[in-house]
Specification:
Elements (H helix, E strand, L loop, with lengths): L12 H9 L9 H11 L6 E5 L2 E5 L7 E7 L12 E3 L6 E3 L3 H17 L6 E7 L10 H8 L8 E4 L7 E3 L3 E10 L3 E2 L9 H4 L1 H9 L4 E4 L2 E4 L1 E9 L5 E2 L2 E10 L5 H11 L4 E8 L9 H14 L4 E2 L6 H6 L4 E4 L13 E3 H16 L1
Parallel strand pairs: 3-6, 3-7, 7-18, 8-17
Antiparallel strand pairs: 1-2, 2-6, 4-5, 5-19, 8-18, 9-15, 9-16, 10-14, 11-12, 13-15
Helix pairs in contact: 1-3, 3-10, 8-10
């Protein structure tokens, strides 16, 4: 018989964040944390709690004129001897170290605290805690819910609590992976002149990448930095055989003003003369900050945190909301540059800052 680890949603934010992070939830192993979230939220009568696999949805039904989704993923990348969490320093200047503190269980803790405490928000709220964000897109819990229960995600606006250093980040870049395939002719390496070395033939591919200058593209007032890089290279079958094939895998991060088809065409044009096979792609999301709901959110949140909206350079699930016709932004505690790193760590003060900003918006 298994025992569900308990989460105390009335605890202070630091304590709750440590409770959430200290339940290991590497992608594919989110069940224990999902069980704990269901048990904790189920104690609050103002919430309807639903579940699909290891994705948990909790929502209010107050008859408000608008509904918002606030979402965060429960999974992390593999633990690297960085759990349980440890605390350094005191008070708001303290820093919490450990897997998931940044990406993105600090944001999840903020969600849980607010979901429990706000029994009469001025907007109806759908809180989403989903699985399998850090792995193949086909497994993503948010995508699964959008297919199985699209009504669960009905909303006028969405906030994804991805780490943004407590700033507001609009939209996201798209991402595309492609294989640039270089042919050759196999031969014995002692008689190399009888073959064609495919690995040598990949030199122009690498030269084009080295010379490539990625663009900075302004979209709806935010400037998105693109990037195109070789991320894998493979070729050869033995140390005494001239390789007859070589594959350079490239990753293109493109501004949300481009479609997937336009991004693929750009990559194919760059590697003209080579076979290019797109293996995976996901469209980005425009900032959408001109939407009235997004503008209202920005005004309320930045009134607490200060600063100005910035672009999200990586791909996030705001793109899924955008595809559903729901304007969405990224907002959460933690420096995204520390996501997935072994020294992942979160300034404790950002927990309260994000909590207070979201509370101000939801109770305005």
């Amino acid at each position: 018989m298994t025992t569900t680890t308990q989460l105390d949603l009335t605890a202070d934010l630091l304590t709750l964040t440590r409770q959430v992070c200290d339940i290991p939830s590497v992608s594919g192993d989110e069940t224990a944390l999902a069980d704990a979230v269901v048990a904790a939220l189920g104690a609050y009568p103002h919430l309807e709690v639903l579940r699909d696999g290891d994705t948990v949805v909790a929502r209010t039904h107050l008859g408000r004129p608008s509904r918002v989704v606030i979402a965060g993923h429960l999974d992390t990348v593999p633990v690297a001897d960085n759990l349980p969490t440890r605390l350094e320093g005191e008070g708001a200047d303290a820093v919490l170290w450990g897997r998931g503190t940044v990406d993105m269980l600090g944001g999840v803790a903020v969600q849980l605290a607010l979901a429990a405490a706000l029994d009469a928000p001025t907007r109806d709220v759908t809180w989403v805690f989903y699985d399998h964000e850090e792995v193949d897109a086909s497994l993503n819990g948010l995508g699964r819910v959008s297919r199985n229960h699209p009504d669960w995600l009905t909303a006028d606006f969405a906030v994804l609590c991805e780490p943004t250093d407590a700033g507001l980040e609009g939209g996201c870049n798209g991402t595309l992976r492609a294989e640039v395939r270089v042919p050759g002719v196999a031969a014995h390496s002692a008689r190399a002149w009888t073959g064609v070395n495919a690995i040598h033939g990949a030199a122009p591919v690498l030269a084009r990448l080295a010379a490539y200058e990625p663009a900075s593209v302004e979209v709806d007032g935010l400037v998105y930095r693109e990037g195109l890089n070789a991320v894998l290279i493979s070729g050869g079958i033995a140390t005494n055989v001239v390789p007859d094939s070589c594959v350079v895998t490239v990753n293109y991060r493109f501004a949300p003003s481009r479609s997937v088809d336009e991004a693929a065409a750009h990559v194919r044009a760059l590697f003209d003369g080579f076979e290019v096979v797109v293996t995976d792609a996901a469209a980005g999301a425009r900032p959408g900050l001109d939407d009235p709901a997004a503008a209202e959110f920005a005004a309320a949140v930045l009134g607490v945190t200060g600063g100005a909206p910035a672009p999200k350079y990586g791909w996030t699930d705001v793109a899924r909301f955008s595809a559903l016709g729901i304007p969405a932004v990224n907002f959460g505690p933690g420096d995204p540059l520390l996501a997935h790193k072994d020294d992942e760590r979160l300034p404790v003060g950002q927990l309260a800052l994000c909590h207070d900003a979201l509370r101000a918006w939801l109770t305005a």
